[in-house]
Every structure is written in C-alpha cells, then in structure tokens.
Design brief:
Layout (H helix, E strand, L loop, with lengths): L8 E7 L5 H11 L2 E4 H10 L1 H11 L12 H8 L3 H23 L7 E5 L14 E6 L2 H8 L5 H10 L3 H7 L2 E4 L4 H22 L1
Parallel strand pairs: 1-3, 1-4, 2-3, 4-5
Helix pairs in contact: 1-9, 2-5
C-alpha cells in the first residue's frame, strides 16, 4: 500500500456508535480541516461492479437491492454470528478502504489537516494511517438515544459487538473526549484537537 505524504497531518477519528463522531467531523470541517468518511467509502466499495460480483458469488443474489447494488443491511444479517464469512468480507473490504483513504489524503493540498472518520479504526488495523488518533466516547444511554433514528436496538447491539471496547480505543488514542455534556464542550474539544494537529504540521516544516 502506498504511504501518505509527509507535508500534511492525518487525523483518525473514531469512537463508539452514537458517541458523536459525525458531529465532531463536522466541527473539524468548520475549522478548516478536509474530511473523509470511511463509511462513505464502504458505500462506494459496495457499488463497484467487480466487488458486487464477488459478494454475490459468495452470498447469492439475496444481498442485492433493487438497484443492483449491495443491500448492506441484508449482508450484515447474513454474516451475523458467522466468523468465517465476516472475516472474508473484512479481508475484501478493509484493504481497499485503507488504500482509498491514503489516496484521497494524498490529493489534499500541501499543509492540509485531513480528518477521517473511521468507526472500526482499531478493529481494521488502520492505526498506522494516521498521525493523530482522536476518540469520541459517550455513555451507553446517550449513545442508544442518539442512534435510535438509524438503528433499532438489535442492530445497535450487533454493531457494538463488532467494535473493540472503549478502554481499548482510549488506550490506542492520542486524544479522548467523553461526549456526555454540551455541544459547546464538544466544539471546544475539537478546536483543541485541531490546534494540536496544526501544531504538528508546523513542527514538520
């Protein structure tokens, strides 16, 4: 896999489901960072004809949505509790996503701060892609409440099973924020994290 350029700072943003990662990403963007979403890249991956063909060959046409792309909800149902099937899917998906993250970061202008939201950053082994890893956490009740419009309780629970523990994320991160307070507090944290990334960039010059 190609390496990212040295004239920029890459920030990996992760955290528990419903912790506020997307809000934090928007805050980074408002401050001037370029932003990426690994989840959006996965959507692109599942729309690629060559990947669709491989997945259909493995799981059958029942994984297709009416438009001929991959129905991610149905695919998740099919791999749930099936370690070998999930591992196969991860080995297909993760290398492409990692390569695409690096490629898009390398398209950024010199001196950019690029923030990439990666829900499964540690699980996918993406730590080495980033200069600074930022984790946003929150208590279980807050996370479930924030996720109710996107996942039912069963889906929320199943996704949580895919993620490493909050303790493991905290141990592997440079900065950790517990997002159980106000939006202003989250904004203040992101501003501080962004300033740290800019300072790292200045140190490289």
């Amino acid at each position: 896999m190609s390496q990212k350029r040295l004239d920029m700072v890459a920030v990996g943003l992760t955290g528990g489901i419903g912790a506020g990662k997307s809000t934090a990403l928007a805050c980074f963007q408002a401050l001037g960072a370029l932003t990426l979403s690994a989840d959006a890249l996965v959507h692109e991956f599942y729309a690629r004809p060559e990947q669709v063909a491989l997945i259909v060959d493995r799981f059958g046409t029942e994984v297709l949505n009416p438009d001929g792309g991959i129905d991610r909800t149905r695919l998740a149902d099919l791999v749930r509790g099936k370690r070998r099937a999930l591992r196969w899917l991860e080995q297909l998906t993760h290398p492409w996503v990692a390569q695409e993250i690096v490629r898009r970061m390398n398209e950024a202008p010199e001196g950019a701060v690029v923030v990439c939201e990666v829900p499964l950053l540690f699980e996918a082994g993406f730590e080495g892609l980033f200069d600074l890893i930022v984790t946003v956490e929150a208590g279980p009740e807050a996370r479930r409440r924030r996720s109710i419009h996107h996942f039912d309780l069963e889906q929320f629970t199943e996704f949580e099973k895919l993620q490493t523990s909050s303790r493991r994320r905290a141990e592997g991160s440079d900065l950790v924020f517990y997002n159980d307070g106000s939006l202003d507090e989250l904004h203040d944290f992101v501003r501080s994290a962004y300033q740290q990334a800019v300072a790292m960039l200045e140190e490289e010059r």
